[in-house]
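Two folds, back to back.
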Amino acid sequence: MQFDLVIKNVRLVRPNQQSVDLTDIAIKDEKFALIDTDIPTKDAAQVIEGNNLLAFPGLVDTHMHVGIYSPLAEDAITESKAAAMGGVTSAVTYFRTGQYYLNKGGPYSEFYPEVLELSAGNYSVDYAYHLAPIASSHIDEMEMLLTEYGVCSFKIFMFYGGYGLHGKTDQAAQRDFLMADEDDSYDIAHFEFIMRSAAKLIKKYPDMADQISVSLHCELADILNAYTKIVQKDDSLTGLRAYSAARPPHSEGLAIWIASYLANETDCLNINLLHLSSRKAVEAAITMQEVFPHINFKREVTIGHLLLDYDAPAACHAKVNPPIRSREDVEYLWQALLDGKLDWVVSDHACCSEELKTDNQDPKDDDNIWVSKSGFGGTEYLLSGLVSEGSKRGLSYNRMAELVCWNPAHRYGLNNKGDIAVGYDADLVLLDPDEVFTVKAEESESGQGYTPFEGMQLQGKVKTTILRGHTVYSNNEVIGNAKGQYIARPTPRP
C-alpha cells in the first residue's frame, strides 16, 4: 500500500490503554491506515522522523468561545491558529444569539447559516458549535438544528436571567443583553423546557441517544447579586479574591443541585456540568450522581482552573466565570482528576483583548476587577499545561489522552476523533515531554496580546500538529492555508 505520510519512531499515547509503545504510524486519505513497527517508507509520499517524541491523538477542545469579543471570521483565523500550536485539531465553540457573538437575536434558522458562512475557510482546525436556546422559540428549533446541521449539544447559562456576563447588572439591561422576545423569561422554567426538548430528541433518535446532551454553566444569579453587593462594599477584598468571593463556590453547588433535579424530572439523561472550579462544585456534582445514578453526568474542568489560583499575578487578566479559586481548590481539582471524578479538560478559550480587560480604569488602579471583561485564551497551553503539572502528580499519559481527546470527542459526537487507530481521522500531535519553555504571549498566534499564564515554566512542548494527515503546525509556526472543516455531529463511527 502506498501511504500519504509515514511517521517513524514515536511513542504512541492512546486513550483507554495502559502503556506507551514505540511504533510507526501510516496515514492514507486523511485516515490512520496502519500502526506498526518498521513500516516501510519506500512508497510513502512523505516521511516524518518522530525521534521518540510522544504521539497524542489530536486534542479535542470542546469548550471555546470563538467570535465572542471579535468578529467571528477574524477570531476564527487567529484563535484556531492558537489551537493548532497547542496540539488541538478539533474545536467545539459555544455560540448563541444576543449581545456579543453576532449581536443579533432571531431564529436559529436564520442565525446559524450566517455563523457557518462566516466560519468557512477561516479555521486552521476542524470545528463545530454548541448552541444555546435563548428564546423560547429556540427550543422548538432544537430538532432542526440536530437533523439539518448536526448540532447535538445545547447550553444553558444558569445565571444569565438575573446577572450580567461581567458582573452585577439590572434586569432591563440583562433583557437587552439576551435580545429575546418581550414575553420570554430566561429562568429555571426555561431550563426545564430545554431539557424536556433534549429528552424528546434522545428518545426519538436512539442511534444518537448517547450523544445528544445539555451542558450547563452552573451559577445562580440570586447568590451572585447578593454577594457582589457585599463584596464591593468590603475594601479588604480586591482582584481575583474579590471576584471569587462575589461568585462564591456554593453558588456553583446549589446550581448543580437544581440542574440535576431538573434532569431527573425531565428524563434528560445526558448532562454536562461545565468548568467546575471548586471543591464544593465537584462534591455537589458527585453527590448528584449518587442521588440520580441513571443520569449520565459528565464533569468538566478547565486548564485555567488547574494552573491558576486567585493569588496569581495575572490579576484582572485572569477574570473568568466561574472565577479562579483558592490554591486549596486547585489542588482538590487535581486530586479529582487523579481519582477519576472529572471527565475531561478544556481551555474555555475566549480571546479577550487587553483593552477589554483594562479600559476605563483609573491609571493608578490596573486591577479593578469589576470593570474588566470576563474570559481569556489558553487553548495553546492546554496539552502542555496538563502534561507539565499532571506528570508531577502522577497522571499517566494514557489518562491525559482520555481527558483531552477521547472523552470529550465521544461525548459530543466526534466519533472519528480522539484516538490513533485505523479508520480514525489522522489527527495527532507530537510532543517533547522533556522540553521546558516559558510562556510568552508574544509567541502565541492568538490575537489576545497577553496571557494570564505569562512567565510560567511548562514542561512538555508541542512540536508538530497534524490535521487529517496534513501538517498544520511545525517548527513554531502555523503552516499553509486554513484546512479546518465543519463537523456535523454525530459523525459516523470508524
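---
second:
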Amino acid sequence: MRNDIASAEHIVKILKNASKVAVIWVLSTMFAIVLNHMGVRIENLLLIYVVGVVICSVETSSMCWGIGSSVVFVFTFNFLFTAPKFTFQVDDPNYVISLMIFIIVAFIVASLTVKLQRQMDIANRRTEITTKLNAIGSGFLNLAGRPAIARYSCDSLKKLTEKRVDILIRSSDNEEFSDSIAEWCYRNSMICGHGEAQFGENTSLYVPIKNSNKTYGVIIFDCCDGDLEEEERGYVDTVISQITLVLERERLNEEKEETKIQIEKERLKSTLLRSISHDLRTPLTGIAGSSNFLYDNYGSLDEETAKSMLNDICTDAEWLNSMVENLLNMTRIQEGRLDIQKKKEVVDDLISGAVTLVSKRLGDHRLKTVTPHDIVLLPVDARLFTQVLVNLIDNAIRHSGNDTTITVSARVMGNFITFKVADNGSGIPEERLDKIFDNFFTTAYENGDKQRGVGLGLTICKAIVEAHGGHIKAVNNEGGGTTFQVDMPMEVRQNE
C-alpha cells in the first residue's frame, strides 16, 4: 500500500514538472518568435532559451529537468530559427558551435541553479526548524506538572516530525509501563524498536527521555509511514534535552516541596509536643491532686466539698477525653484515614447531643438553642459532626468571657442547613480571622489567658465540615462577639 502511494506521488510530481517545462517552453518560444519578427538577431534569441533553462531548473528543482529542457530548447531553436528553417539540419558550422556552447552553458547553469535552490531550501528548512525549536523551548518555560509537560511535548514532536507520537513519563520508580518494549527502553535507557538492534521488527521507535543521571520516561514514534531521518533525529534530540530539563526542574521542585512539607510536619510535631506537655500537665495535676486529697481524707469531707472536687475531676477528665479525640481525628485527617459514615440524622438530636456533652463545662455561661420547628434530617456522620459542634461551643466557652450567652441555632437555607454558634464576647481581632482554622493556632497564651487549648479544635471542624461537602467561616458580630457559621448540604452529592 505504502509503495503504491509513493509511486502515485512520484507520477504526479513528474506530470507537474513536465507541465511546468511545457509552459516555459511555449512562452519562451512565443517570445523568441516575436523578437525575431522585430528584427532581433537570432544569436540573441539563444539568451531567451538560456533564461528558460534557468527558470525550468528553479521551478523543478531538478538538474535532469534542467538539462532535458536545454536539449528541447536547442532543437526548438534549430528548428525555428536556423537555416534551413523547419528542419533539424544546420548549414552554418558557426551555429553548430553556438548550439554546443548553448548546451554546455545550459548544463552549467542548470547545475548551479539546482544546487543554489537546494541550498536555499535547506537554509529555509533550517530556519523554519530553528523557529519551531525556539517556540517549543519558550513553551516549556511556563509548564508545571508531568501531565502538562507530557501533553505539550507530544504535540510539539507531532508538529516537528509529522508522525504519531506518544509519551510515557514515570512519576516514581515503583511504577511499570504496560508496554513491555517501553519498559525495556526505560530500564536500559537505550533506543529500541523500529530499525534498531533490539525489537527492530516493531513498527514503533522507542526513545528514552534521559540525562546522565536519570531516565524520566519514553517517547514512542509511529514509523509506519517511514523512518525518522537523520536530520529529524537531531531535532528530536534537541527537544528531548529540553523535555529532560523541564522534568528535572519539576523533580527538584517536588523535592523542594516535599522538604518543606517534612519541615512543616516536624514543626507541627514539635508544637504539638510542647502544647500537649503543657496542656496535659494541668488537668492531670488537678485530677491527681483532687484524687489524692479525696483518698487521704475519705470520710472526713463534707458532701458539698466532695461533690465539688469530683466535679473538677470529671471536668478535667472530659477535657482530656475531648483533646485526645481531637488529636486522633487530626491524625486520621492528615493520614487520609478519616472514615465518614453518613446517615440521616435529626438536626435537633445533633444539637442536643453536643449541648449535653458540654453542659458540665458551661460554668457561668448561658446556653441558648434555636432549632427548626419541623423535623429536619441531615446526612452526616453523627459522631464527627457532634464533635464539630462540641469544639465550636468549647471555643466560645473559652474565649467569650464570663457571664456571656452562647447561642446554638440551625435553620434551613435552600439546599443547606446553616448551623451557627454565636457568643456576645469580645470577638476575634480582624487580622486573626483568617488564621483561626490553622493547625495549633490559639490566642490563649498570646493574651495571657491560661485557658487550655492546643489549637486543633477549629482545624478539625474545618476538615470534618469540608469532608461532608460543607463550608465553615467565622465573622465578628456588630454588637460584639463572634459567630461561627457552618453550611451543610441536605442531599448526598453524586460523587461522594
